[in-house]
Design brief:
Elements lengths: L2 E4 L5 H12 L3 E6 L2 H11 L3 E5 L5 H13 L5 E4 L20 H27 L5 E5 L6 H4 L13 H19 L4 E5 L17 H12 L10 E3 L2 E2 L3
Parallel strand pairs: 1-2, 1-4, 2-3, 4-5, 5-6, 6-7
Antiparallel strand pairs: 7-8
Length: 237
């Protein structure tokens, strides 16, 4: 039985990823910062869904989640899905010209430092697995190649904090993959999906967005590692 943790799994892409992996036979821990929302989500997902309270910005919360999952038998797959975007009071993305150090710090605390905190804490459990897999949910906005192309849609994106944080996630993916060659560690671009993160303005459903996350979460020991991909294949860094 494959055991999987999905962070930020009480809604959106995380919830759909958990649902699909449960259907594929995984036991899934629904990581949720809000325990009550996590319990509701796990209840909707079914018997093999287990709620674990997990605030990736908090050391004690992450340590407690590690202990709970270790006591239940360990972990095979980690999906680092939890993330935030910098939005102003009117709900729109904070443009680059208005981004402050505090704005960057807030986004990086979750998207970057939270991901590192979770990775570091769960590495001992993953290393005990016969087929450990890590999926880092990145973004097409993380591609420096596309951001530098004037005619590419990414170039028109006004924000700074979120794309920068996901570019760091890509580098983390490459470095972790080199450091742990026995693991399959990849970054994925789900696409512009209708979720709370995008203000429900995406062009595709969560079912469509979760497809690449689920595919990479189900890699075998001979699967690719250190990549940055979407549903169509590799993306330029």
């Amino acid at each position: 039985m494959t055991t999987t943790l999905v962070t930020g799994a009480n809604k959106g892409l995380g919830f759909e990823t958990a649902r699909r992996l449960l259907a594929a036979g995984h036991t899934v821990y629904v990581g949720s910062r809000d325990a009550a929302r996590g319990r509701r989500a796990a209840g909707q997902l079914g018997a093999r869904a287990r709620c674990v309270q997990l605030d990736i910005t908090d050391d004690a919360s992450v340590a407690a989640a590690v202990s709970a999952i270790e006591d239940d038998g360990g972990l095979d797959v980690l999906v680092n899905n939890a993330g935030i975007e910098a939005r102003g009071g009117n709900g729109t993305v904070v443009p680059a010209a208005e981004v402050t150090a505090d704005t960057m710090r807030e986004v990086f605390e979750t998207n970057v430092f939270g991901t590192v905190r979770v990775m570091h804490a769960f590495l001992p459990l993953l290393q005990r697995s016969a087929a450990p897999v890590v999926v880092n949910v990145s973004s097409g906005l993380a591609s420096l190649t596309h951001a530098a192309e004037p005619d590419h849609p990414s170039a028109a994106y006004p924000g700074l904090a979120y794309p920068a944080s996901k570019a760091v996630i890509n580098m983390l993916t490459v470095r972790y993959a080199k450091a742990f060659p026995a693991m399959r560690i990849n970054a994925v671009e789900p696409g512009f999906t209708r979720t709370d993160l995008t203000g429900n303005t995406g062009v595709q459903t969560v079912e469509q967005g979760a497809e690449i996350i689920v595919r990479m979460a189900r890699l075998g020991p001979d699967g690719p590692t250190g990549g940055y991909v979407d549903a169509q294949g590799p993306l330029p860094w």
